[in-house]
Prior knowledge:
The chain is of the alpha/beta class. The protein has a single domain (17-232), classed as BirA Bifunctional Protein, domain 2 (2-Layer Sandwich). It is 27% helix and 26% strand. It has helices at residues 28-43, 76-81, 111-114, 118-135, 180-183, 198-202, 208-222, and strands at 18-25, 50-56, 60-63, 85-88, 95-98, 102-108, 140-142, 148-151, 154-164, 167-175, 229-232. The strands form two sheets. The chain has an eight-stranded mixed sheet with strand order 7-8-9-10-6-2-1-11, sandwiched between helices. It has a three-stranded mixed sheet with strand order 4-3-5, with no helix packed on it. The longest helix has 18 residues, at 118-135.
Amino acid sequence: xxxxxxxxxxxxxxxxxxxxxxxxxxxxxxxxxxxxxxxxxxxxxxxxxxxxxxxxxxxxxxxxxxxxxxxxxxxxxxxxxxxxxxxxxxxxxxxxxxxxxxxxxxxxxxxxxxxxxxxxxxxxxxxxxxxxxxxxxxxxxxxxxxxxxxxxxxxxxxxxxxxxxxxxxxxxxxxxxxxxxxxxxxxxxxxxxxxxxxxxxxxxxxxxxxxxxxxxxxxxxxxxxxxxxxxxxxxxxxxxxxxxxxxx
Length: 248
């Protein structure tokens, strides 16, 4: 269901809706800023209104609370050549690579008003990831080493969520169609589990739109929402021109 942009940020304080915003390719700083705006708004409400941001990121590496720079497996010169920034983020999870072909799904919902604890939230996300894989005829299960989901070829999805004032932010990353050389740039987990993508498991091209639609539907269901509204873009999204510095 689509609606005008002007209607998207004016829900009453008695809404139980879930709004999904398809943002395209967005730099990390812009997605973080929009998440914080939405998180603050949802924290001030008294209902179960929530939001999901779905996007891709330009090439970059992020390090969460469980990661360290030692997880980066290549020299800084190679990252510079690939025009990849390295960023520390206040999120769960370890060290992840982000490139087009990976879906970033940020879930901003009031856990307390949905009757969910932190572990319940993680379980809901993993349930949605496994259900999405099943829609694609990929047998999957929750990952045992780090939060996320894995299939026969390895782990294809990683959860990097956090909670503040009982409102979630961050979410998860799904490797849909990434080259193996990109996956091998960092140590995603401290275990010996291989990191893979859905396309590698399916051994054929996998459309981002197909994965995106299944993820949205399954996340909404796992969190207990009866339905959701899908919008293209967001009026508060601040887009920036990315600058890449190359040092001689």
